[in-house]
Amino acid sequence: MEIEVQLTNGPIAGKISPPRLAAHGAWLEFRGAVRDEENGEKISALEYEAYPEMAVREIRRILESLALKHLCLAAKAIHRVGIIPVGEAAIYVGIASRHRAEAIALLGEFMSQLKQGVPIWKRRALPVGARLSQPQHVGMGEHVGNIGRAAAGTTALRSLDEAMSEIISRCPPLPAVRAPLAEAFGRVLRETICAPEDLPPVDRSTRDGYAILTNDDSENFQIVDTLHAADWKPRQLKSGEAVRVATGASLPCENLRVVMQENVERTGDQIRIMRRETAANISFHGEDLRAGEPLLRAGAKLDAGALALLATAGNVNPLVSPRLRIVHFTTGDEIIPPDQTPRPGQIRDSNWFLIRGLLQYIPCDLTQAHLPENFEQAKCLVSTFSLEPSAFDLLLVSGGASVGEKDFTRALLEMLGFEIVFSQINLRPGRPLIFGVNGSRAAFGLPGNPLSHFVCFHFAVATALARLTGGEPPKFLRGQLAEKLDDKPCPRETLWPAKWEIGPDATARLRPLAWANSGNVACLALANALVRVPANRGSVETGAEVDFLPLKYS
Amino acid sequence: MRILFFAQLKDATGCDAVDFAPPSPLNREQLWAMLLEKFPGLREHRGNVRLTRNWEYADADAQFTNADEVALIPPVSGG
User: Fold this and answer.
1) Which residues of chain B have a CB within 8 Å of the CB of A294?
2) Which residue of B has its CA nearest to A49?
3) Residue burial A211-232, b: 16+ Cβ < 10 Å; e: rest
4) What are phi and psi of A241, to 5 degrees?
5) Residue A136 per-residue DSSP state
6) In A402-508, which residue ranges form alpha helices assigned H by DSSP?
7) Which one of A264, A269, A274, A506 is most buried, by most CB atoms within 10 A?
8) Hey, is the C-beta of B18 within 8 angstroms of any chain A C-beta?
9) Cα A301 from Cα A315, distance rounded (Å)
10) DSSP track, A283-352
11) What secondary structure, in 3-state letters, does A526-541 show?
């Protein structure tokens, strides 16, 4: 019985292939679409929400039990979540069976059980005329605060929290793809992977020794077989019989114990037990994991350990975030390549390497270029990149330090079809931060000063990267200042570069780094955290509790 | 233990998840008592809410421990 269950944020494919089974005579497909009215009101879309891990398990459980009852051969169910426009499918079910009657019976029962117990909800209806491009929250298991807050104008100064929640709500996850394990490192898992079988699948010896029946009190044993790690030779042992086993060998039957070889005396093919231990010396079947238990949850970042786990489970093509396509432009006529010596008024370009370095932490294809400050020339150069909307997922523009930088970036983004969501935040450093969206693409205009750039990347760009890939956006943690944070009251909220470590009492301890102005680069090489200092606070004393952002990309 | 809220229960509680660390396992009544104390807005939903423990509907005599993921499931409406 082959069962596949998916939850998806995007449209369900128009054509889905039936399973390749020789025996099936019927392949029944059903699509349930969103109607144009809900409770008597005309609507343009429905928003669905799910408890993803459980919904997938419940659908699978229902399909498994119904498939046994109706003797079906294969089933596939896909439920879409997020905002689904009228006319598009919310659910797809495909069932293979020998004859049509079984599949039709299963479908009917499945749909009624789904509507009773699978944790998926119609969250709200969007009236006709609502803007579908502004999901208030889309995502599997991720939910955004401030739902329903009226959008402020793009020129209004945003607070840090407002900016982060707007980025979260305007950057829904990109459609997931299947990737071979060898290319999956660093991607975000977009499905929950369950153990396909008990692990270990059979009882295994944890010692070199002799397997005997658990309650066998015989003094002497006849060795009836020898098992190496790769052997699989089931047999029922009798009293007085022993099997020579190597560490890791699959045991021939249940109810055994393994006597360590150090505790027996062997003569030819006979052994005598010199010392009996209480330990069975067996890794019992299902001890590590039971079939169906989640191994990795959707949203997990695939590190080396996670890849090893997927390989163990035989999952060689996990559903993951796509490799991001990122374009980065630096701007400003005062910027020179780092191998040149700056004349007065010039500075070496550090942002190129900052962005390049920060993006090493996520799987992406990065294109970088420097743009001239003259907008007409810049437009010309940009046009040579043939930046069609489908060619990239994220655009970053590092502004020059000149007066006109904001207008330049803004005009550039607008020329590329971006809607500017906000262009200023009430933050030090990093006030002139621009955020725009164009369909599923996001763009940031980052202030040119290296420290502002660093700070904006870590709270704003990192939030967008997490959302686009379906991962967990950066979150502030609580910690304690190990040294005084020396500051004058500032009318803006501040993200102060700091170094954090876990103290002896297991709390996070933060040392603020010296920092004079937003162009200061010395602390970039040390910072691994940003401490949040409320507006007008001034100095914060040693020992005070503070919120801080641990830097994922450092 | 992590407790998740879905659909209208998010509106009732104002959040989508909360972490509790009860000193010992809780039965259904004790769990509800704790929830209602923190989120009185859940009271009117209680009759319609099913509890889950680690991605399965919980039995009547289930014990909820610190290691569990618990969810409050209001009436579902998928499909």
Assistant:
1) 55
2) B7
3) bbbeebeeeebeeeeebeeeee
4) -105, 150
5) S
6) 405-415, 450-456, 462-469
7) A264
8) no
9) 16
10) E-TTSSB-TTSEEE-TT-B--HHHHHHHHHTT--S-EEPPPEEEEEEEE-TTEE-TTSPPPTT-EE--HH
11) CCCEEEEECCCCCCEC
Chain B residue nearest residue A91, CA to CA: B79
Q: How far apart are CA A69 and CA B46, in angstroms?
A: 34
Stated pTM of the model:
0.59
Kindly provide the b/e burial profile for residues A520-541, where b requires at least 16 CB atoms within 10 angstroms of the residue's own CB: beebbeebbbbbbbeeebeebe
Judging contacts by C-beta atoms under 8 Å, the chain B residues touching residue A51 are 4, 6, 52, 71, 73
From the CA of B26, how many Å to the nearest CA of chain A? 22
Per-residue confidence in pLDDT tens, chain A, 554 aa: 788 888 888 788 888 888 777 677 899 999 999 998 887 888 888 989 999 889 988 999 999 999 888 888 899 999 999 889 889 999 999 999 999 999 999 999 999 999 999 999 998 787 776 544 333 333 333 333 332 333 345 556 789 998 999 999 888 889 889 999 999 999 999 988 888 888 888 899 999 999 999 999 998 999 999 999 889 999 999 999 999 999 999 999 989 999 999 999 999 999 999 998 888 999 998 888 888 888 898 889 999 999 999 998 888 999 999 999 999 998 887 888 888 898 888 888 888 999 999 999 889 999 888 888 777 878 777 777 766 666 889 999 998 544 555 578 888 888 888 898 998 888 988 778 999 998 889 999 998 888 888 999 999 999 999 999 999 899 999 999 999 999 888 888 999 999 999 988 889 999 999 877 655 678 888 899 999 999 889 899 999 999 999 998 76
Residue position matching structure tokens 């010896």: A205
- SS3 for A259? strand
Contacts of A439 (CB under 8 A, 6+ apart): A133, A389
Pairing mode, strands A89-97 and A177-178: unpaired
Distances from the Cα of A351 to the Cαs of A68, A179, A359, in angstroms?
60, 31, 12
Residue pairs between chains A and B whose CB atoms are closer than 8 Å: 58
Best CA proximity match to A474, nearest among A232, A256, A201, A165: A165
Report the chain A residue with the minimal C-alpha distance to residue B15: A145
Helix axes A52-70, A100-117, angle to 10 degrees: 150
The secondary structure of residue A52, as a DSSP letter, is: H
Phi, psi dihedrals of residue A116, rounded to the nearest 5°? -100, -35
* Interchain CB distance below 8 Å, A91 and B6: no
Contact B6 A49 (CB under 8 A): yes
Cα of A387 to nearest chain B Cα, Å = 39
- Pairing mode, strands A220-227 and A270-273: antiparallel
Q: What does the alpha-carbon distance between residue A394 and residue A205 come to, in Å, rounded to a whole number?
A: 52
Of A111, A115, A121, the CB nearest to B6: A121
**Type of residue numbered A253:** C
Interface confidence (ipTM) of the complex: 0.97
Nearest Cα of chain A lies from the Cα of B4 at a distance, in angstroms, of 9
Q: Which residue of B has its CA nearest to A124?
A: B7
**Residue A136, both tokens:** 């208030």
